[in-house]
Amino acid sequence: MMKRVLYLTCFSPFFLREKPSSIHIDEAMNSFSSLLQDIKNLESSLTKNSLSLRWCLEATNLLRKMHFQFLDIFQESEEPMFWDGGNYMDEYMEDSLHILDFCNVLRSAISTMDRYRLIVDVAVNRFSDEGYSGSAMNMTEIEKLEREWLKLYGIENWKNVNLYKTGRPKTKTKDNKLCTAYVVRRTMNTVCLLLFCAIFYPVSIELDEEVYRDFPQLKLFSSSLRKLVCCFFEERQGVKDNSRPVLVETKMVESAVEEFKVQILNGGVPLNKDKLKKTIDSLQNSSLALKEGLGIFDSVVNELFQEVVKGRNMILGLVASS
Predict the structure, then answer these.
(1) pLDDT tens across 11-62, in order?
(2) What is the arithmetic mean of pLDDT over 98-114?
């Protein structure tokens, strides 16, 4: 399948005042020291926990932190800055809608996975009600689970997801505060794309190396971000079918369903009820793990959404009072 190169617009550089900022550039660089550790932690988590809902939660928490730092740059500014007659308030308000849209798309994916989980729970109950008889009813439930599972991931299922392209600012500037804001924005884009690949379907990710070259202090930061992206795709190397879900929790359910199917289609050999019961218990436990992971991930996505809404309201309030 042809890979698509995309960029998710999270935020634009905006509202940076022309007069010297109260935020010294060294302070801005110190903020990246904290983000550097978060990037390393995200890579470490990917190595230890594989590609899971827990990892998606941690990536979303990193987006929340970067969003806070990005807003802090504006909050410390005394007046908006305009270039080439462009109104960067309007541009920010438009671009910030993109991160809200991304949150809504994540919610849609969470809802789809939760619907699948509910189908699994119904199937588990019916398997038990059938008394492990291996009847046609059980096979019907298995086939339904397989069909629904394939709806969770892949470009065919999510081709209508609204994606946004972004490029470097039209205005070239050496303003350190502007460059710092843009670095945060591009880093957020990369993390958004990693989340997109984990939840929807794989796309190529190209780091904007040039933006990090503006600050020699960020050489280690850009290197760690590059390692994170490489680690992510190394984790996916064993996945040959790009239409199949890659999250640990969904793969656990698939494995239990497949095991149950093997025991049902046992070529006429009498069912081992003890073994079958263990398989059904495994299916039930994997469904519970999926439920817990989705609940926590959904909560963090909602928090990010609310914080972006508050940020937009804050900006409008500052502009109104200026």
Answers:
(1) 333 333 333 344 445 666 677 778 889 999 999 999 887 899 999 999 999 9
(2) 92
Rg (CA), the chain: 23
Residues ≥6 apart with Cβ < 8 Å to 238: none
Please state, in angstroms and rounded to a whole number, the distance separating the CA atoms of residues 42 and 57: 10
Q: pTM for this structure? A: 0.84
Task: Note the pLDDT tens digit of each residue in 242-287.
Answer: 888 889 999 999 888 888 888 777 755 667 778 878 888 898 999 9
d(CA 61, CA 75): 21
Q: Is 159 exposed, middle or buried (0-12, 13-18, 19+ CB in 10 A)?
A: exposed
The letter for the amino acid at 253 is V
Residue with tokens 């020291």: 33
At 54 the three-state DSSP class reads: helix
Q: How far apart are CA 290 and CA 165, in angstroms?
A: 32
Distance, in Å, from the CA atom of 132 to the CA atom of 155, rounded to the nearest integer, reads 36
Closest CA to 214 of 22, 29, 21: 29
User: Residue 28: CB partners within 8 Å, gap ≥ 6?
Assistant: 73, 176, 177, 180
The answer to whether residues 80 and 88 touch, using CB atoms and an 8 Å cutoff, is yes
Tokens (6 digits) for 201: 């379907």
The DSSP element (H or E) to which 304 belongs, if any, is helix 273-321
Mapped onto helix, strand or coil, the DSSP state of residue 231 is helix
CB 169 within 8 A of CB 204: no
Averaged pLDDT for residues 206-219: 77
Asked if 251 and 263 count as a contact pair (C-beta separation under 8 A), the reply is no
Enter the tokens of residue 194: 């990693």
8 Å CB contact between 138 and 264: yes
What are the φ and ψ backbone dihedral angles of 152, each rounded to 5 degrees?
-80, -25
